[in-house]
Amino acid sequence: MKMPDENKLAKQKKRNQSIAFWIFRLLSYLIVAILFAILSFIVFKGIGVINWNFITQMPEEGMTKGGIFPAIVGTLCLVAGSMLFAFPVGVLAAIYMNEYVKDGIIKKIIKQMTNNLAGIPSIVFGLFGMSLFVNKLHFGDSILAGSLTLGLLALPVVIRTTEEALKAVDNTFRHASLGLGASKWQTTRSVVLPIAFPNIITGLILSIGRVSGETAPILFTVAAYFLPKLPTSIFDQAMALPYHLYVLSTSGTNIAESRPVAYGTALVLIIIVLIANLLANGLRKYFGKKVKMN
Amino acid sequence: MSHLDIELQQLKAETIKMWTLVNLQLSKAKEALLKLDKDLAREVILGERRVNAWELKIDRDCENIFALFNPVAVDLRFVLAVLKINNNLERTGDIAESIAKFVINVDTDFDKKLLEITRAVEMYDGALFMMEEVLEAFDKLDTALARKAFQQDEILDDINVKVNTVIADYIKNHPENIEPPLYLISVIRKLERVGDQAKNMAEEIIFYIEAKVLKHRSKAEKKKE
Amino acid sequence: MYKIESKNVDFFYGASQALKNINLAIKPNTVTALIGPSGCGKSTYLRLFNRMNDLIDNTKIGGQVLIDGDDIYAKGVNVDSLRKEVGMVFQKPNPFPKTIFENVAYGLRVNGITDKKFIEERVEETIKQVVLWDEVKDKLKKSAFELSGGQQQRLCIARALAIQPSIVLMDEPTSALDPISTSKVEELIYELKAKYTIVIVTHNMQQAGRVSDTTAFFYMGELVEYDNTKTIFTNPKVERTQNYITGRFG
To answer: How many domains would you assign to chain A?
Structure first.
């Protein structure tokens, strides 16, 4: 066999490598560039209308003037409500799946179902929420119905992140606790959960980001087209940022005039999601340090 | 104190016990020789069994320490030294026994003047003294004391060299009584060996404490060290 | 009277047999080392004594494991109280995400002890027992993660001892520690022997020699040889044992 020329081969290798590197590099730059483009577009368009009044006042004159305060409050209510539902249910379900169920057919089925749940389009959640919560359970268009619908949407995310967090806890911690005569629940509560906590909380906050941006599930369950007052109970309708944005850009009284308000709303929404993400990072680092393994 | 320390300390205690027993054997044999006390000599011969038992025990303990603890550095030198000292002690024990056998075999009308003119008693005392001193050096980790053994050994060698002419003269003068002086010369040779054993043990002690190998060096060199 | 006895013990993970007909008896207040190459079944065997293998799905045991003469796999055995009797220390130091004090108190608390004074006394006593008191007495309220690896492992030993077991199982307790910490833990094992029966799995042959009274050599799920450690290390009866301890394996 004739051996290839070594110098030539080396050159060829080097060239191939640098081509590949450049492709990767460009792609990753592209992602950053797109993100940057979207953000700067929104900021550029929206920053003009943002001021203290914008975030604390009611909308006025067919939503072309005034603020978006009720939409902010509505979104916060929905986020809180959905988490109040999804967090305990999701975490308990994940604990059950990871700590209690033995490997086998049941575990597989639950897992598959959770994955399927995650794959359902959000508009279907909206329809389901409407027929179950709004109509069947007679909650009406309300924060309660919207929160539960959003909660259902967030459930698979919470379950999956919690499960991953629990899985990441080294088994010897469980064995050490059980080895001292502790019960499974004692072990989970006082050893496993504290260790998994930073990762669980990260999952929770990421799902907050997701929930706060959803439009479809709230469309039929809670969102008010225009409601210049704050909700007083969980059975009230409410405005919400993503829906408000949708309304402003598609069916407002005067789409052209309300454009700046729409961009302002988008900016506020993005900032809320961004804050949630930063919070997630900060909390993970903070709690992570507390239970740091060597 | 660590587990290994405890084991090493036990090994040292055992070695000192064996050493004391060997010294006792030697001095009993001397007593028997001076008084031609055959009962005491028999006692020495019985005692040799205990010396042998000690040797086996210390050997086994050294083996276990090597196998179980993998000693290094000073610990390793200590176990190596004990292993060799054990060997030397056992041989010294054999010497005590053979002196005792000589006492049993010799006629009771043994001419005690022989002991005087050959300086056998003086030599015996010297050998015993060496054994005691080297033991103390081992116990107290005193290398200066161990080094004294080298000088002491020279005195024993000196007596050993001179004994030939003394015995030859005696045989010429007492041609009717040849056996006792011949026996005695072998005792003297044995005492000289005791000195050598003590010297070897002193070298082992210096090796253990100072990590210096003094074996096969000339006397002048040893003194310089 | 033996502290631990196993009679014709077989153990299966699913269809594969991990232990084959193990017969072994351990006297009280001794240290027994289980040695052998990875996957020989020694850790599995160790975990039989506090039924830790129960936590793995799809396993099956045959034969008998007796502790103080009672079959711990018999019907009606309370696994929690068995585990109180049989403490365990793991390969990697794994203190709980709690304070130093609470780590040691944990076993007492989960077993329903609430008397504050008793807990405090017991914690102090146990930390002293593992020769850690002087190092931690001023930071009992601090997180256990602030301790060094070696200190953490001694804390884990204290955690296991606090509930006063009579048997302590150790699964390669020093494999994640530096030599100084290792020798501290080894000294501890040697001292603890007076009060406990200790079974230790180790990959470190020298460690088995240093700390144990008896040694069991496992190979491919079988007990090849079980004897006094001195005999195993100076004159093993089976050639395979000799090959293993001299490093001429395979």
So the answer is: 1
User: Are C211 and B70 within 8 A, CB to CB?
Assistant: no
Q: What ipTM was assigned to the predicted interfaces of this complex?
A: 0.88
CATH top class, domain B3-224 = mainly alpha
C-alpha distance from residue C80 to each of A265, C87, C221 (Å): 58, 11, 27
pLDDT tens track for A122-133: 889 888 888 888
- Whether A50 has a pLDDT exceeding 90, the answer reads no
Mean pLDDT (chain C, rounded): 92
pLDDT digits (tens, 9 = 90+) for A232-251: 777 777 788 888 888 877 87
Residues 144-203 of B with CB under 8 A from C: none
CATH number listed for the domain at residues C4-245: 3.40.50.300
Q: Is B4 on the interface with C (CB under 8 A)?
A: yes
CB-CB contact of A184 with A99 (8 Å): yes
- Residue ranges of domains in chain C: 4-245
CB contact under 8 A, C233 and B67: yes
Q: What CATH number corresponds to the domain at position A284?
A: 1.10.3720.10
What DSSP state is assigned to residue C53? G
Residue A214's closest CA among A226, A222, A203? A222
At B165, is the secondary structure helix, strand, or coil?
Answer: helix
Amino acid making up residue B202:
A
Q: In this structure, how many other beta carbons lie within 10 angstroms of the beta carbon of residue A137?
A: 12
**With contact defined as beta carbons under 8 Å apart, do A142 and A237 qualify?**
yes
What pLDDT is attached to residue C192? 92
DSSP string, C92-123: S----SSBHHHHHHHHHHHTT---HHHHHHHH
